[in-house]
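Whether sequence alone determines local backbone shape is best considered at the level of individual chains. The sequence in question and its structure tokens are set out directly beneath this paragraph.

===
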Amino acid sequence: MSQFKFQSLEVWQLAITITDKLLDIADRLSENKKYRFAEQLNGAALSISNNNS
């Protein structure tokens, strides 16, 4: 009996792609000294894929 792996779901893979893009935006915001917004975006981005696991 094989075990189901959520990583094989297309929706999870898309969530990782979106997360990567949002983390890049958060990095740019930090560079522009918009630390609080960058922190909030970072937390939101990471929760996308974490909530699917």
